[in-house]
Amino acid sequence: MSAGATTPGDAARERRGHRRDVLRLRQLGRAAVIRSTVRHRLPDAIEHVAQAHRRHHPRADLDTLRRAYLLAESAHRGQFRKSGEPYITHPLAVTLILAELGAETTTLTASLLHDTVEDTEVTLDQVRADFGDEVGHLVDGVTKLEKVEYGAAAEPETFRKMLVATGSDVRVMSIKLADRLHNMRTLGVMRPEKQARIARVTRDVLIPLAERLGVQAVKSELEDLVFAILHPEEHARAQELIRRHSAGPDPLAEAADAVREVLREAGIAARVVTRPRHVLSVHRVRLKRGEPGPYDYGRLLILVGENADCYAALGELHTCFTPVVSEFKDFIAVPKFNLYQSLHTAFAFGGGRIAEVLLRTHAMHRVAEAGVIALGDPHRAGEGDAGADEERVDPTRPGWLSRLLDWQRQMPDPDTFWTALRDELAKDREITVFGEEPGSGPLQLPVGATCVDAAYARHGDAAHACLGVRVNGRLATLRTVLHDGDTVHLLLAPDGSSGPSPEWLAYATTPAARIPILRWLDSREAAGADAGPDPAPHLGQAAGASAPAARRAAADPADRAAAIVADVPGAPVRLARCCTPVPPDGVRGFTVRGGAVTVHREDCPTAVRMTAAGRHPLPVTWRSESIGCRVTLHAEALGRPELLADLTEALAAHGAAVLAAEVEPPREHRVRHTYTLRLPDSSGLPRLMRAMRRVPGVYDVTRAARLQP
User: Rounded CA gap, 578 and 606, in Å?
Assistant: First the structure.
């Protein structure tokens, strides 16, 4: 393959794609009502679909598509969209989107029929009888999604239903995404307030799923369409910047020519094109860097034949140009969670101008654009681009989707699941850590993940037995935040007899860790204080804090219901472990699974997040300030000998029982002590904190907001 060329018109043609699609749909509408009179001939209305399908699947049997179109056209005959076009143009447009992304025949067949069971007299049994159980299953899944109610109050259950439908076969969500894309393209006929409502749901629900499924082509266009509706002024400004830039010659053409020449001389067959940024991407560049420069409107895309060619081309670029080292990322060796693989780099040329570059194979490019859609039929061995890791072996259920489905089964409370889900979808930046254990592969974790997160990502529920961890060969605490490239060795109890302590929730940032920890602690409370194994004493726990004592304190009813009266008669009440409220703290309560009320401090980040997510707080009051309480304190000090003994003496003098203690490794002669205490009288807390501050070397004592640094 010879190096390909690009012209300034390429970018303009790509941006005119939407208008071309509109014209094509009008042609489809005219063709849809002029049916072919020749038996077994492919109807003119689906010729565009067939051509797109053949580009990806040259040997595809098109008779199934012909029969599906004829049934859909007959069923929808006489129905019209709000725009006045025949309704059949909608399933045709959805199917064309999927065909251009490389979907296989079964998905296209289901796409043509996806509205028949919902909106016509065609039954699901008829679809199964005529096209098979697989098509019937996909049509049924899309039909169920159409019945889902959207809106702020319905969001948790909406997402749960969508995930369940997606989990049974990811192609259901592929059809749904294409369906939403076409509806967003034609949203102009609706009232502005309805446009805004649909755009918000698309932004909050469907775009994150498109990102997670790797369908970047759909995600990018949905982002631009939502951007235009919700932020029309900013959208118009970004469009104007793109228009001005496109009016002149492509500034990256010189860099592209130089790259082609370098690769040609090196004997590397490659196609080099300029890949323009979409509208929202240009807007983000403007917000991040100020007004975009001439080289900020696009990136160079280099397509080669084999994985090794990517690295060979990278070596040539870094040899012949000045690389920007901070811009290099290798998503081939460590793919992203959503199947994405590429090499990212940037180099300086011609007077310090910077060109950003993407290098990938043609197969990687198909997956980068179409995600799971490009992987072929997930039920037929040998198709697609499956690799060795979990995210690529089973495109029907990518690894992240499997985790979400497991969480939704484990967390029947939709609000709790929704909070975990929103946190998961919001974390789009990742790090990669490596295990020391034989056969342990790399782990992808979100930025900010701790050793607790790594333990549960690696071992699942078996991480309950984690006793400690080595990071880069040195002992570390479980709260240690991991960084890209760290090596992690987890230390587990050999007999699995230990369990997580409540403090682990303070270190867990991922649902994969928080949900099993919460489930384990809830089961312990339900079983009673003396049932099951003791919580694991993680490295650093000391100072007279036995695990049984910590467990009894966590289960002590006086620490929960005796302190609080909630406006829910008869409901069990407990104090949140994340912020350990005590009188006279301002507090608020939230109903949780089983009808119990959990009470948080008003400034607790968990309470703030639940309120922002639509959870309604309940008014709660303290019965008395003269009660026992459980509290966590941080003591910041300059490291010195006998500091721990002096602090412990101060605690004992005020009647504080130490349930757990942790001393972090000194940093620049500063050290932090964390104590979880039980006080006989909450009114003595201010006196205790003043006494701790009087210990030589201690310069601050604070209450933990979430038991974390």
Answer: 8
Evaluate whether 259 touches 317 at the Cβ level (below 8 Å).
yes
Of 10, 21, 119, 406, the active-site residue reads 119
The whole-number average pLDDT for the span 238-258 is: 91
Which tokens belong to 457? 């990502």
Q: What is the pLDDT, as a whole number, of residue 396?
A: 42
Token digits for 401?
């989707």
Distance between CA atoms of residues 179 and 86, nearest Å: 16
Query: Can you say whether residue 339 is alpha, beta or left, with left for phi > 0 and alpha for psi between -120 and 50 degrees?
Result: left
Q: Which two tokens stand for residue 635?
A: 């003591």
The stretches of 542-679 forming alpha helices (DSSP H) are 547-555, 605-612, 643-653
The mean per-residue pLDDT over the stretch 282-293 comes to: 86
- Confidence class of residue 9 from pLDDT cuts 50, 70 and 90? very low
- In the predicted model, what is the mean pLDDT of residues 88-98? 94
Distance between first and last Cα of the chain: 56
Is the pLDDT reported for residue 537 higher than 50?
no
What HEC string does 291-317 produce?
A: CCCCCCCEEEEEEECCHHHHHHHHHHH
In the annotation, is 118 catalytic? Answer: yes
Enumerate the β-bridge partners of residue 678. Answer: 630, 657
Is the Cβ–Cβ distance between 495 and 475 less than 8 Å? no
Closest listed residue to residue 487, CA positions, set 448, 454, 524: 454
The model's pLDDT over 108-164, given as tens digits with 9 standing for 90+, comes to 999 999 999 888 889 999 999 999 998 998 888 887 766 554 444 445 555 566 666
Residue closest to 574 by CA, chosen among 518, 536, 531, 530:
518
Distance of CA 607 to the CA centre of its chain: 22
Task: Give the pLDDT mean for 510-539.
Answer: 63
Q: Which residue has the tokens 């467990």?
A: 551
- Average of per-residue pLDDT across 198-204: 85
Tell me, what amino acid is at 327?
E
Residues 10, 21, 44, 118: which is the catalytic one?
118
Three-state SS for 698? strand
What is the distance between the alpha carbons of residues 452 and 337, in angstroms, rounded to a whole number? 20
Pull the structure tokens for residue 586.
């301002």
Q: Which of 439, 455, 419, 373 is nearest to 592 (CA)?
A: 419
DSSP letters along 215-264, please? -HHHHHHHHHHHHHHH-HHHHHHHHHHHHHHHHS--TTHHHHHHHHHHHH
* Beta bridge mates, 329: 344
Place of tokens 């034609």: 186
Q: CA 263, 265, 270 angle in degrees (round to 5)?
A: 30
Q: Burial letters for 654-684: b for 16+ Cβ neighbours within 10 Å, e otherwise?
A: bebbbbbbbbbeeeeeebbbbbbbbbeebeb
Tell me what pLDDT residue 584 has: 76
pTM above threshold 0.85: no
* Distance between CA atoms of residues 422 and 410, nearest Å: 16
Tens digits of residue pLDDT in 622-680: 766 556 678 888 898 887 878 888 888 888 888 888 877 788 877 767 888 888 888 88
Rounded CA separation 676/631 (Å): 6
Furthest C-alpha separation in the chain:
97
**Tens digits of per-residue pLDDT, 599-626?**
888 888 778 878 877 778 888 877 665 5
